[in-house]
Amino acid sequence: MAIDIAISISGVLMIAAAIGAVLTRSLLVSIILSGGVSLIASLVFLLMGAPDVAMTEAAIGSGLTTIVFLYAMARSKQTDDEDADERMEITSEGSGGAS
Amino acid sequence: MMRKVLVVLAVLGFALALLPLAYEAGVAGKPGDLASAYLDRSPKDFAAANVVTAIVVSYRGFDTLGEVAVLFAATAGVGALLTRKRMGPSATGGKRTESTEILRTAAGLLTGLLVMFGAYIFLHGHLTPGGGFQGGVVIATAVLLNLLAAPRSHLAHGAVTVVESLSGAVYVALGLLGIYLARGFLDPRALPIGKIGALASAGTIPLIYSVIGLKVGAELSAILDALKGDRE
């Protein structure tokens, strides 16, 4: 019974974190919240008696995936900035329209 | 407006389709027939204390080989796409900010412990929860910590390649050993299965999980290094 209550509370927290990850405006907060969803999911796996899956979920879902997303975010921001710089150069030279 | 209604309808339909599962969720009192068979047989067949490992590495060993191959393909894809030529030099032009003293000290203290813990997880895969994949990820975390602590450092690609390909070859070789010395491909009884609970037990399962751990650790480290960028 206590386990059922703990699983239910974790489920509600997971749903709340997932909705928060979708609704938030900041990409960083969204990434961290989806890592949190994985972390709570690993807790649920542990409560349901699957420590092997819990370890994988904690290590890959909340650890490595978050890092990969963060690196990807840094990378995409960087290319955005470079594109913006190029456009600025073209318009300042006045050699044709920027598109 | 129309789109939002459709989205809500789709979510509602999905929830309705999954509703029966909600009643079956929770901790089952009794394992099913297949689970009971595995629980009964795996200590007798392979002397593996951790039944999950016995299933993953021997009963469903071929699936695991496929998973490892998929992970290798993913790593090769990331490595091929994220080259310096494609991505260009980083925005900071190679002038990365130095990491803080706290991060450097913590990395020095934790690296050894993390690698040791990862090796422990995959060496004891047949005795305790965990195994090659989990241990490999823990080792990749140690590599990540060092990449963060020293932003200008790079992974020794030669060493990673050697570890990665050697462990893959050893995995297949151990599987083939099962054909010659036991009953089939990836049969762990190629080596004596020993006594249940001992570190040197369960035939080739600890060896297979060790090479999986090394392979996964090397591949994930390579992905992290490729994502970090600024490769020569």
Explain this structure.
The complex is a heterodimer of chains A (99) and B (232). Chain A is mainly alpha-helical and 99 residues long. In chain A, 87% of the residues lie in helices and 0% in strands. Chain A has three helices and no strands. In chain A, α1 (2-23) runs antiparallel to α2. Chain A starts with a helix and ends in a 6-residue tail after the last helix. Residues 94-99 of chain A have low confidence and may be disordered. Chain B is globular, with a radius of gyration of 22 Å. Chain B has one domain (48-228). Chain B is built from nine helices and no strands. Chain B is 69% helix and 0% strand. With 232 residues, chain B is an all-alpha fold. At the A-B interface, α1 and α3 of A face α7 and α9 of B.
Mean pLDDT of chain A: 81
Q: Specify the overall morphology of chain A.
A: elongated
Largest sheet of chain A: none
Class from helix and strand fractions of chain A: mainly alpha
Stretches of chain B where pLDDT is under 50 for at least 5 consecutive residues are: none
Helix percentage of chain A: over 70%
Number of strands of chain A: 0
How many helices of chain B?
Answer: 9
- The overall pLDDT of chain B, averaged over residues, is 82
Radius of gyration of chain A: 21 Å
Terminus-to-terminus distance of chain A: 62 Å
Low-confidence parts of chain A, pLDDT < 50 over ≥5 residues? 94-99
Backbone shape of chain B: globular
**Order of helices and strands of chain A, N to C?**
HHH
N- to C-terminal distance of chain B: 50 Å
- The amount of beta strand of chain B, in percent, is under 5%
